[in-house]
């Protein structure tokens, strides 16, 4: 497959598809590559860049003061909501599995860095044996497509997505069932899924993709959203996709409505279920949008505070 180099990328950066929200270009995490051992598996977090989200879009029911109050309770100061885009690469049982594929270079200029950072990590796209999608939102799916030649960048990989997720976005007229602000994104997602066509193998929550890597139902943020549980010889990590997005609010107030969620009640239930599981079973978390490199654990909030808290590291 053609290599997607910096020159081609910068040419494409101006082509500008619809972004979900105004974006602020910021310096991303210095290296963009973070590797660690998880029992018998090797995990590498690859940065696809960053994304900014206005408060009014993600927390439409809450005032700035109310959000700032929760940040204060957590010992933090509310600034701009700048989120990372942390793509996970798991080497397990002879397979090299990418979890989500970033936004691609035609979504927003400060994203779409996955291909360059994979090269920095010494990983050829052809070496990847599976791409597992937590869901089909642009920042998770669009990066799979070669922007110049079409088709997938990962030519030797099986592409795996829940049937519920794929079928939802392939529905004729799906754009009329989503908020106006994301209609362009829905059309773009459908186009890319059609482009992948039969390359996508459909699965369902609960399925084991390979021994030690299985899908957990976290539907709500999107219709067929799943998280990926890695159990590598007893060491466990949940690659949470967008089940838990923001490092303060998603944990301290899991029941607050999050604007971009597809089904609010399902998303709240999924957050609570996931938080309960992470605490009860002492499972580490890798969050797609949590502070670089997205790793940490969850604890119940201290006495006097509500909900949970995310402890990075
Ligand atoms: Zn996302």
Labels describing this entry:
Metallo-beta-lactamase, Chain A; binds zinc ion; 313 residues; 7-stranded mixed β-sheet; alpha/beta; 14 strands; disordered N terminus
Structure overview:
The chain has 313 residues and is of the alpha/beta class. 24% of the residues lie in helices and 26% in strands. It has nine helices and 14 strands. β8 and β9 form a beta hairpin. The N terminus is likely disordered. The site of zinc ion (ZN) has 6 residues, from α5.
> Number of DSSP helices?
9
Distinct small molecules bound, one entry per kind = zinc ion
The CATH H-level homologous superfamily: Ribonuclease Z/Hydroxyacylglutathione hydrolase-like
Please state the CA-atom Rg, rounded to the nearest Å.
18 Å
Q: What global shape is seen?
A: globular
Q: Identify low-pLDDT runs.
A: 1-28
Number of separate strands: 14
Q: What is the count of structural domains?
A: 1
Give the ordered list of helices and strands: HEEHHEEHEHEHHEEEEEHHEEE
**Major β-sheet, in short?**
7 strands, mixed
Structural class: alpha/beta
**Residues in β-strands, percent:** 25-35%
| CATH fold-level assignment | Metallo-beta-lactamase, Chain A
The percent range for helix content is 10-25%
According to CATH, what is the class?
Answer: Alpha Beta
Strand order of the largest sheet: 1-2-3-4-5-6-7
The appropriate CATH architecture is 4-Layer Sandwich
**Quick check: average pLDDT?**
89
């Amino acid at each position: 497959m053609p290599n997607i180099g910096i020159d081609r990328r910068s040419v494409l950066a101006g082509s500008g598809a619809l972004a979900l929200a105004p974006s602020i270009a910021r310096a991303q995490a210095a290296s963009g590559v973070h590797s660690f051992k998880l029992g018998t598996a090797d995990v590498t977090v690859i940065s696809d860049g960053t994304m900014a989200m206005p408060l009014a879009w993600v927390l439409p029911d809450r005032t700035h003061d109310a959000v700032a109050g929760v940040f204060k309770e957590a010992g933090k100061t509310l600034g701009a909501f700048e989120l990372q885009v942390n793509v996970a690469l798991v080497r397990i049982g002879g397979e090299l599995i990418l979890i989500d594929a970033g936004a691609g270079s035609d979504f927003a200029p400060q994203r779409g860095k996955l291909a360059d950072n994979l090269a920095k990590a010494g990983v050829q796209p052809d070496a990847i044996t599976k791409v597992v999608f937590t869901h089909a939102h642009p920042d998770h799916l669009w990066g799979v497509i070669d922007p110049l030649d079409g088709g997938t960048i990962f030519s030797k990989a099986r592409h795996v997505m829940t049937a519920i997720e794929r079928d939802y976005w392939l529905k004729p007229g799906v754009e009329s069932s989503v908020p106006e602000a994301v209609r362009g994104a829905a059309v773009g997602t459908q186009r890319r899924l059609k482009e992948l066509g039969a390359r996508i193998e459909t699965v369902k929550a609960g399925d084991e993709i390979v021994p030690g890597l299985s899908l957990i139902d976290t539907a709500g943020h999107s219709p067929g959203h799943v998280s990926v549980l890695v159990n590598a010889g007893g060491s466990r990590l949940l690659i949470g996709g967008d089940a838990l997005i923001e490092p303060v609010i998603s944990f301290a107030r899991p029941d607050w409505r999050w604007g971009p969620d597809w089904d609010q009640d399902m998303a709240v239930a999924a957050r609570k279920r996931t938080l309960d599981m992470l605490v009860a079973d002492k499972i580490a978390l890798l969050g797609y949008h949590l502070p670089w490199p997205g790793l940490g654990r969850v604890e119940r909030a201290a006495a006097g505070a509500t909900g949970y808290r995310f402890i990075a590291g």
